[in-house]
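Workshop exercise sheet. Pairs work together: one partner reads the sequence aloud, the other fills in the structure field after running the prediction. Swap roles for the next sheet.
Pair: D.N. / O.F.
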Amino acid sequence: MRQPHIWRWWQQDWAVERWVEVLEEQAAGEHSIPCMTALDGEDLAYVELYRVRHDRLAEYYACEEHDWGVHIAIGDATRVGRGIGRRLLRSLADALLRADPRSTGWSPNRTPPTPRRSARSPRPASNPMGSYSCPRKPHY
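Structure field:
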């Protein structure tokens, strides 16, 4: 999280002890699920899966009751901009929507913001709600 390409968006270059607290809090709650992903046996990305309706970003997305949101931080800068993140998002969306049939969509949180997507299509399911400045992530 201290690498410049991650810090620029996340601004969470915390000490390990702070990360332990935050991850334990997330794991104990119902709002967010922290995950690590791997590709070809190597760590790839830190991922947070969350229910959009419980997130402070909910006011910026047209979301349904059971929709998921995703935050992704790819650790190795040489893997950024090569389509790996897009493939990871697609895989995560497919898995989430299969595992939770109540969900009708998902929202990858990106800059610039990406509109909600439907369960059946990688294309936006709705029109963007307009232009906005995404609030900074809270510093837990």
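Discussion prompt: The helical segments are 4-10, 16-28, 84-99. What would you look at next?
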